Amino acid sequence: MDSTRNINIARSALITGGAGFIGSHLAEALLERGQHVVVIDDESTGLVDNLAAIYDHWDFEYVRGSVNDLPLMRRLLREADDVYHLAAAVGVRRIADDPIDSIERNIVPVQSMLAELARLHDAGQQVQLFIASSSEVYGKNPAWPWAEDADLVIGPTNRARWSYGAAKAMDEFLAIAYHRQRNLPVVVGRFFNVIGPRQRADYGMVLPRFIDAALAGQPLVVHNDGEQIRCFVHVADLCQMVIALMNTPRAIGQVFNIGSDEPIRILALAEKVIAAVDPSLKVVFESYAKAYSSDFEDVHVRIPCLDKLRHTIHFHTQYGIDDVIREVVEWKRNTECDAM
Ligand SMILES: NC(=O)c1ccc[n+]([C@@H]2O[C@H](COP(=O)([O-])OP(=O)(O)OC[C@H]3O[C@@H](n4cnc5c(N)ncnc54)[C@H](O)[C@@H]3O)[C@@H](O)[C@H]2O)c1
Fold it and tell me: Does the beta carbon of 23 sit less than 6 angstroms from any atom of ligand 1?
């Protein structure tokens, strides 16, 4: 039996944070499926340029504004069938530099959105919500690979880096509570290290940081000893997983890890970038204390268990790590040429 939702009627999708890295790719993927797409973004880290390929599409609408603007959000939510909530303050560097703004951005809008969707639900309108959460909710749980029901092991509150995972966990608690108590159709996805074109380097994201350095002919700065282990997924593969979950009724009310489960050491990632750009480049090591602060704690190994995702949707990833590196290098080179 086909358990996917009948989506032949064009559904209207609202993407919050849709001018950002992941949101802009999601907007393209949804338009390709024939959905009407509305993006709201305050351009705090997103760029309208990210939407250049679809900006003039007849079925696309861009709204510059904040998800904290309640009257605006009420109107947009009323007109939506599906909402993908991606707006957030993202990146270790950004959280470390401005924890108040990050915590407020990552909690307050979810509260108001869920309350408004519950009101609409009571009035007979079903709007389905996807919440973009993060692997950071697992904190420093040492028992990887992490399955969705694993403990969340967050560090102390005087270390700002844990506030991001704690805020995302609170979003999840609230979303699940609204599903259980108010019957709201909600799907939660914990993204694991997403990479691809349009990801910015300036908030601490590792691959664009390495590629920017390599293209500038500079050494690649690897934090600590480079033995940290991560799994990277191409943004296009991730978007297909998100859309598939939103179109699978048994995903509703559930939390899913979303990403790749192929691990790579950060030092090996740096070496791949060097091989792709200029084999004469070097790696330099920098302590966490120098990169962030003396009390900065990192997560050594971050590997998801994807069993639940595999049992719920059919997917195959199209891009390996070398494909993504090549694509991002090419994109960066083209963007630099365009800017000249
Ligand atoms: N990139 C990753 O590897 C990763 C990993 C885990 C989770 N996530 C989650 O995925 C989502 C998207 O992340 P991204 O990497 O595309 O980051 P991004 O910074 O590129 O996108 C976030 C977007 O939200 C917008 N935004 C922020 N606050 C807003 C507000 N109050 N109102 C309207 N727009 C606002 C920003 O301008 C930006 O365009 C986030 O929720 C993030 O927490 C990303």
Answer: yes
Q: Which domains does the chain show, CATH number per domain?
A: 12-199+232-260+304-317 (3.40.50.720)
Rounded to whole angstroms, how far apart are CA atoms 168 and 49?
27
Mutate to test the pocket of ligand 1, among 43, 90, 324 (most ligand atoms within 8 A of CB): 90
Please give the distance, rounded to the nearest whole angstrom, from the Cα atom of residue 86 to the centre of ligand 1: 5
User: What pLDDT, in 10s, does the model give residues 81-116?
Assistant: 999 999 999 977 788 889 999 999 999 999 999 999
Predicted model pTM: 0.95
Residue 109 to residue 115: CA distance in whole angstroms:
10
> What are the residue numbers of the active site?
164
The minimum-distance atom of ligand 1 relative to the CA of 200 is: 20
Q: Are strands 82-85 and 128-134 parallel, antiparallel or unpaired?
A: parallel
Tell me how crowded residue 82 is: count the other CB atoms within 10 A of its CB: 23
